[in-house]
Design a protein that fits this description.
- With about 220 residues, this protein is mainly α.
- The chain is built from 10 helices and no strands.
- About 75% of the residues lie in helices and about 0% in strands.
- The radius of gyration is 18 Å and the shape is globular.
C-alpha cells in the first residue's frame, strides 16, 4: 500500500514543482535540501518510471540556474554588506575567499562551487558584487547547473534501478547516498584548500577563510 501511494504521488506534476521550489530555495538558503530532493526524484524516476528522469534533470537544472542567477543579481544590486547577515565575520571571510578565487579563474570556481552549498552562495553573490560580466557568468552557471542536476538525479536513479520493486526504500537510500557523497565532496574540497594554503606564502587561503557546507548545515 505505501508503495502504491508513492507511485500515485510520483505521477503527479507536483513532484517536479516541489523539486523546482526546493532547488531554487536551496540556491539562497543553503539548509534547504535541494540536492536531496533531486536525488529522491531520480530514484522515483528509475523505480516507478515517473516523473521521467529527463524531466527531473531539466527542472532541477533550470531551478539551479535561476537560483544562481538570482544570487548574482542580488550581489550586483546590493553588494556584500547591505544586510546584517552579510556583515558577519564568517560571511566576510567567505566573500574574501570567493573574490580571490574569482580573480584566479571565474569558470573553475563558479562551476565547482555549484556542488558545495555554502561556497556557491558566496561565489555567486561575490561574482555579482565584483562586476563579473553577466555574459561570462551566466553561460558558466548554466553548464554548472546542468551538470549538478544530472549528477544528483543519476545518483538517485542508480539506487532506484537497483530497487525497482521498493520505491520507498529507493528514495530513502538515495537520500542517504546523496548525503554521504555531499560530505565526501565537502571533505575533499577542504583538503584541497588546506594543501593550497600550505603552498601559499602568508596563509592567505587558510582553512578558516574557506566556506564549507558542513560548517553551516
Amino acid at each position: 500500500m505505501p508503495a502504491d501511494l508513492l507511485t500515485a504521488i510520483s505521477d503527479g506534476s507536483w513532484t517536479l514543482v516541489a523539486v523546482f521550489a526546493l532547488v531554487l530555495a536551496d540556491s539562497v538558503v543553503v539548509i534547504v535540501p535541494g540536492e536531496l530532493s533531486v536525488a529522491a526524484a531520480g530514484a522515483l524516476a528509475a523505480a516507478t518510471g515517473a516523473p521521467p528522469l529527463a524531466a527531473v534533470i531539466g527542472v532541477a537544472a533550470l531551478a539551479a540556474f535561476c537560483g544562481d542567477a538570482l544570487c548574482f543579481a542580488v550581489g550586483r544590486r546590493v553588494g556584500l554588506r547591505r544586510w546584517r547577515w552579510m556583515r558577519s565575520a564568517r560571511m566576510q571571510r567567505a566573500f574574501d575567499w570567493a573574490g580571490r578565487r574569482l580573480t584566479e579563474g571565474t569558470a573553475t570556481v563558479v562551476f565547482t562551487a555549484r556542488f558545495i552549498p555554502f561556497a556557491r552562495l558566496a561565489v555567486n553573490l561575490t561574482a555579482g558584487a565584483t562586476r563579473v560580466p553577466a555574459r561570462r557568468f551566466l553561460p558558466i552557471a548554466a553548464v554548472a547547473a546542468t551538470a549538478w542536476a544530472a549528477y544528483q538525479a543519476v545518483v538517485g536513479a542508480a539506487v532506484g534501478a537497483l530497487l525497482p520493486d521498493a520505491p520507498i526504500a529507493a528514495v530513502l537510500i538515495s537520500v542517504g547516498v546523496a548525503l554521504a557523497l555531499g560530505v565526501m565532496i565537502d571533505s575533499l574540497a577542504a583538503m584541497l584548500s588546506r594543501r593550497r594554503a600550505a603552498r601559499t606564502s602568508g596563509g592567505a587561503d587558510s582553512p578558516s577563510a574557506r566556506p564549507t557546507a558542513t560548517e553551516d548545515r
